Amino acid sequence: MGFYSLHVEDSPQPATGSFNIGTRRFSPSARALVVAGLAWCLLLAWGCASGHQDPFPDDLPEKRSVRDVEDRLRRAAAASDRLTLRSIGKVTCGRFQAPLWLVVFSPEKAARHRVLIDAGVHGNEPAGVESALDFIDELTRNPGRYENIEFHVLPLVNPWAWAHDVRYNKDGIDVNRDFSSFHAREAALVDRFVTGTRYDLIVDHHEDPEGSGFYVWQYGRDDPALCRGLVDRVSKLGYPIEPDKRKVLISTRQGVVDAPLWGLYWMKWTRRLSLTNYFRLNNADAVFTVETPTRINLSDRLIMHDQARRTFLSTLGPGGGS
Ligand SMILES: [Zn+2]
Question: Model-level pTM?
Fold first, then answer.
């Protein structure tokens, strides 16, 4: 799952004006300071609660084969002269080796938009990877659908974790908390690849092993209407929507997590920046994370991911495949 933002408005606090503690009366500015201090402590507590773990043993058994992904990508690239299969670097963990694959789609017409699709930052969230691979197949079958969009697809950002069905990389690093420090090879490779490139849209495919319904993250965005419309469509298809979590640090409302821009700077400052936080600050104004609950059928999760990607692409106009 993506990072959790702080929504100060969820904190219990007086509605307006001054407030009292015991017999003392505090001004609005003092109140703001107290709220900020409280937020600080809670964020610090949250920050310590997530992150990394001990490295994994060398003999951890594989659950999936990256060869299968490579075979599928090679077949797709061979079937379309508009697709190019590249590697942005290699992940090596003992005897395990895998390229960090990049698929580039060059449209028929001059590209008016550039879009980045990524998946598999967390290895135990397989529907995202499967959905990205499905999308690459779709580009092969129907290249005219997106006639003016150049796509960069990173279908498997954390191949060792995916092969072993775990959240972290081999060193126990949560790659999705490493986009300030870049201790993880996977994060460093993505950073090197995207530095200096602007995108019109970035879609990040995740899953939530503890979730019970679909939800989506938006970052530093004024209006939640696009995401709310997506959630409505997914709901009308009969799929569950993640219940509202109106806690201090987590706020899922009607299937949308609205991460404020200041929260991303906070994550950067506390050196826990996620992939999408980083993208929003450096590479695109329109960045979204799609989350599906791993407890329901894979085929249903794939429909939700596909629906989300189509919705976001439709914002790019006629060439967006709408
Ligand atoms: Zn995730």
Answer: 0.85
